[in-house]
Design brief:
Blueprint (H helix, E strand, L loop, with lengths): L1 E5 L6 H15 L3 E6 L13 E5 L13 H16 L3 E5 L1 H17 L6 E5 L2 H4 L8 H10 L2 E4 L2 H10 L7 E2 L15 H7 L5 E6 L8 H12 L4 E6 L5 H10 L6 E5 L4 H5 L4 E4 L8 H8 L4 E4 L14 E4 L4 H12 L1 H16 L3 H20 L1
Parallel strand pairs: 1-2, 1-4, 2-3, 4-5, 5-6, 6-7, 8-9, 8-11, 9-10, 11-12, 12-13
The structure holds ligand GMT.
The site of ligand GMT has 19 residues, from helix 1 and helix 4.
């Protein structure tokens, strides 16, 4: 198949899922055309089946706001027409689903009928999409897509709860490439960070408010007051400065390192003992899945779709959002040498269920279904 993938070329979340999906499809022999405003970080190599089309945004002094969505729709029309794509798969509803709708209508006037698959990822529904500024367009473009998928059962229900959706939503969970995300031997790295055999706690996110980075620091502070431990904070975003200030106030800076954005997250996760994800809202929790694949148990909130991934008492523990006391207590239980090995094994076993080899066929099935619908 010739597949167009539209996504944000970002460090985490939907951008990573879309890029890894495209790479796996290319390995399966499909021709994959990425349409984005800059090249996704994980596409920095040559593959004969992968193509990249940059959205050309033309700015003009009259515009206070650049009409990106028009440039994107025009690019989609152009690529579908000239590369003879079979379908468009757009990731994150805003503005990709409505731009795809516009492209589809334009192509129809040229007698080209292209099916559109929209994948809902999280904040496009739970935070941004339901804002009155966007809600009517999001509702319309979801209803107009040929097939809609969501990354968890919880996100599917949230979509039905917040929008007037009159169609089926197919759940296709996030996935992991276990050939890349698996525990690597990095003893020298562990010894350098934890020279006295401290327990190593890790958090990865885009440091937005929804991630509750302050709870990560609170939980770590409580763990640290009981056992020798270190914290690695991976990623960057608006809440980083606040988190750094908290570390100063708690006088734990010597044991907390802010690493910024990292490409090779799996190297750090390979030496981790525990992952903390206390999010206010989280449709799936890809960062937690990456940790689990590297045998790192998870202490998380019970928000959104996290319970579909992190199993209480097996792969880690879940607590209500903001309950940092219980999170710290559970963390100390998991980190106890009498329990840690069991939780590490539990995390890996669970992660294996989300291996890309199991999830890719679900997307391929969706594509075949979209093509059949389009023939009618
Ligand atoms: O909020 C983020 O971390 C980014 C966001 C996105 O859409 O780019 O991530 C969402 O999509 C991921 C991939 O499907 C999910 O694993 C995350 O749980 C989800 N984030 C939230 O719902 C907050």
């Amino acid at each position: 198949m010739k597949i167009g993938i539209v996504c944000y070329p970002t460090f985490g979340g939907s951008g990573v899922v879309a890029t890894e999906l495209g790479k796996a499809l290319a390995r399966n022999g499909h021709k994959v055309h990425f349409i984005t405003y800059s090249k996704p970080g994980r596409l920095d190599f040559f593959n004969e089946n992968i193509f990249y089309h940059e959205v050309d945004v033309y700015d003009y002094p009259l515009f206070d706001y650049t009409p990106y969505e028009l440039a994107l729709a025009s690019k989609m029309v152009n690529v579908v027409e000239y590369e003879k794509l079979d379908l468009l798969h757009v990731h994150y509803a805003i503005p990709h689903a409505s731009a795809a709708y516009m492209a589809k209508q334009i192509l129809k006037t040229k007698n080209i009928h292209i099916p559109v698959i929209t994948t809902l990822h999280g904040t496009d529904i739970t935070l941004v999409g339901k804002n009155p500024s966007y809600e009517p367009v999001v509702t319309f473009s979801i209803n107009q897509s040929d097939i809609v998928t969501s990354v968890s059962e919880n996100l599917k229900q949230d979509t039905y709860n917040h929008f007037a959706i009159n169609r089926e939503i197919v759940v296709v969970p996030n996935f992991i490439d276990l050939t890349r995300f698996s525990k690597q031997k990095k003893d020298h790295f562990k010894n350098a960070i934890c020279p006295n055999n401290e327990k190593l706690i890790v958090h990865t996110s885009n440091f937005r408010k929804v991630k509750r980075v302050e709870d990560v620091i609170e939980v770590f502070f409580k763990i640290h007051s009981k056992i020798p431990s270190k914290l690695l904070m991976i990623g960057d975003g608006p809440e980083r400065q606040m988190a750094e200030q908290m570390c100063r106030d708690y006088q734990i800076c010597n044991d907390v390192r802010f690493l910024g954005k990292l490409e090779a997250v799996e190297e750090v996760l390979s030496v981790g003992d525990l992952f903390i994800l206390p999010s206010e809202s989280e449709s799936f929790g890809l960062a937690a899945l990456e940790a689990m694949a590297c045998e790192v148990p998870v202490i998380s909130s019970d928000a959104g779709g996290i319970p579909e991934l992190n199993i209480n008492g097996e792969t880690g523990f879940l607590s209500p959002v903001g309950d940092v006391a219980t999170m710290a207590q559970n963390a100390l239980f998991v980190l106890d040498d009498a329990n840690l090995k069991r939780f590490k094994q539990g995390a890996l076993s669970r992660a294996k269920l989300f291996d890309i080899a199991n999830i890719l066929p679900l997307y391929e099935k969706v594509y075949h279904q979209a093509l059949r619908l389009n023939e009618k």
